[in-house]
Hints:
The protein is an alpha/beta fold. It contains 6 helices and 6 strands. Helix content is 32%, strand content 16%.
Amino acid sequence: xxxxxxICAAIxxxxxxxxxxxxxxxxxxxxxxxxxxLAQKALVNSAIVTWGHPEEAHDDTLxxxxxxxxxxxxxxxxxxxxxxxxxxxxxxxxVTLFVPDGSWRQAMKIPRRLPxxxxxxxxTLAAGxxxxxxxxxxxxxxxxxxxxxxARALGVLDGPAAQxxxxxxxxxxxxxxxxxxxxxxxxx
Length: 188
């Protein structure tokens, strides 16, 4: 992003009860299309765990669910449980939400490749509005940018204020990026 369009100074510190852990292949970390890193900058209670680096051993302890919390993996898998108010209310413990980041195919494989995530319940988002990520075309009509998926999950787990705050960061990033390309955000 051009320095004059950078939104870094405007990124709020969003406090959530849910801890968000982005899990991504090390090559995804530096991609300009990666919106998960933007979510991590805004969410105080978040972290990024990378894997697949040939020169670094993967440490599964970074994926451990701390005592007193429950772990969930956000997944596009067909057999994932719907992440809804009933699921959130069924267990009062705060959630550590693991978010596999990358393409659809990569996200599907991450829980199988990382043993610490393999046995955690997988959850999926309900169908909602189409993506607001106007920077690339989604392959699937229901596809979302990572930050959008996180925002919608936080809407269920932490409430609409957390979702709206993270979506505002995303909207600012999209608008700034489109402006560098000489385009405006399309009307909804």
